[in-house]
């Protein structure tokens, strides 16, 4: 038996709405033609309350599947208790089983698969929720290939994760043959292929990690191996360009040249360009005005080094200025202590800082008091 694993379709994603429908449809159609069952690991929709056009497209796409679809909701679809989320609506209108704390048994050619699903829960509750749902509602089925489907962050996979997220280490202790996760938009296979994240079918973040091909996993229950099947999707380039003592024309020309090169490789590609480095003396990053190009996203980090260096210098000068002042005051107080009564050392210092006239006026005032 072959199982397709798809995730994070983000239907209706506003920046690349056409891609979200087109690429999801390709993934579902392709998966349906090659598999016996499709698993969909959450974030089918981009928002909790999609527009009717998006819901209609979703129904049309999933209606085309010739095989059953088993889904969970993702964090983008999660709503409060006693409300309806869009995946519930989709499952009520199509051949889709929606799991949250329950299982789905599927049999074909003498092979049985048991899928247990938990829709997205807040990260800090994930382990406790999974434990309690499994305790109350999961009965491992004898002889079945057991699959867990979730939509959570994984501690070991996302740098900067806290301590509360689910860990691969914990998931490995659970009685499943395969764990399928959504949420992370990158394609990942771990633990000898026993832990799979297909990644999103549409680009949602203009990051380096999104330049890899989009697609889905095809899992063979007999060999227990999976294969990543790329779908025909819009190409995404992420380029870094570094300049040195550059002016506006140099930068503009280099960017135009780069865009031409990339568009020659793929005419309708999305392009993100991060520009960094230094500018010609007297220019600052905000002096550089760049043209806008369709589907080109430019991140201007020019001169950020020298800006940071300047800020550091100012900070340092401030700190030093403060310590010189304190040092001088201390020194003056020390030298005059007990021997001079005509002025207060810190007061005199303040007057000296203000100017000669202020100092003389202060001393004259003190002199009057003394006599
Ligand atoms: Mn997502």
Sum this structure up briefly.
With 371 residues, the protein is α/β, with parallel strands linked by helices. The chain has helices at residues 17-34, 52-63, 86-93, 126-137, 168-171, 248-265, 304-336, 345-354, 356-370; strands spanning 2-6, 37-40, 69-71, 96-98, 102-108, 111-117, 145-150, 178-181, 188-190, 195-197, 215-220, 225-230, 236-246, 270-279, 296-302. The protein folds into 3 domains: 2-230, 4-Layer Sandwich (Purple Acid Phosphatase, chain A, domain 2), CATH 3.60.21.10; 236-302; 307-370, no CATH class.
Description of the structure:
With 371 residues, the protein is an alpha/beta fold. It has three domains: 2-230, Metallo-dependent phosphatases (Purple Acid Phosphatase, chain A, domain 2, 4-Layer Sandwich), CATH 3.60.21; 236-302; 307-370, no CATH class. 35% of the residues lie in helices and 23% in strands. It has nine helices and 15 strands. The protein has helices spanning 17-34, 52-63, 86-93, 126-137, 168-171, 248-265, 304-336, 345-354, 356-370, and strands at 2-6, 37-40, 69-71, 96-98, 102-108, 111-117, 145-150, 178-181, 188-190, 195-197, 215-220, 225-230, 236-246, 270-279, 296-302. It has a six-stranded mixed beta sheet, with helices on one face. Helix 3 (86-93) links the parallel strand 3 (69-71) and strand 4 (96-98). The longest helix has 33 residues, at 304-336. It is elongated. The termini are far apart. The mean pLDDT is 91. The chain binds manganese (II) ion (MN).
């Amino acid at each position: 038996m072959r199982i397709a694993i798809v995730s994070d379709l983000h239907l209706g994603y506003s920046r690349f709405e056409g891609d979200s429908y087109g690429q999801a449809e390709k993934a579902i159609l392709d998966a349906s033609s090659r598999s016996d069952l499709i698993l969909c690991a959450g974030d089918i929709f981009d928002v909790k309350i999609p527009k009717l056009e998006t819901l209609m497209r979703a129904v049309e796409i999933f209606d085309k599947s010739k095989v059953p679809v088993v889904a969970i909701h993702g964090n983008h679809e999660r709503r409060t208790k006693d409300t309806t989320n869009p995946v519930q609506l989709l499952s009520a209108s199509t051949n889709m089983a929606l799991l949250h704390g329950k299982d789905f048994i599927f049999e074909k050619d003498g092979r049985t698969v048991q899928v247990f699903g938990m829709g997205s829960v807040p990260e800090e509750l994930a382990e406790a929720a999974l434990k309690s749902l499994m305790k109350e509602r999961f009965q491992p089925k004898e002889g079945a290939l057991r699959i867990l489907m979730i939509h959570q962050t994984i501690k070991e996979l996302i740098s900067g994760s806290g301590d509360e997220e689910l860990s691969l280490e914990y998931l490995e202790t659970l009685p499943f043959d395969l764990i399928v996760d959504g949420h992370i938009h990158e394609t990942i296979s771990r633990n000898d292929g026993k832990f799979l994240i297909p990644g999103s079918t549409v680009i949602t973040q203009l990051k380096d990690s999104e330049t890899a091909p989009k697609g889905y996993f095809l899992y063979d229950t007999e060999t227990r191996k999976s294969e990543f099947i790329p779908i025909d999707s819009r190409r995404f380039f992420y380029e870094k360009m570094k300049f040195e003592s550059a002016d506006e024309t140099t930068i503009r020309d280099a960017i135009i040249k780069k865009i031409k090169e990339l568009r020659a490789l793929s005419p309708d590609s999305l392009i993100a360009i991060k520009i960094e480095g230094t500018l010609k003396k007297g220019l600052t990053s905000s002096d550089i005005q760049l043209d806008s190009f369709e589907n080109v996203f430019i991140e201007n980090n020019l001169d950020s080094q020298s800006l940071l260096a300047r800020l550091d210098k100012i900070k340092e000068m401030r700190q030093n200025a403060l310590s010189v002042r304190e040092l001088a005051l201390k020194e003056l107080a020390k030298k005059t202590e007990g021997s001079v009564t005509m002025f207060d050392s810190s007061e005199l210092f303040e007057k000296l800082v203000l100017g000669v006239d202020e100092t003389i006026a202060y001393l004259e005032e003190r002199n009057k008091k003394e006599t």
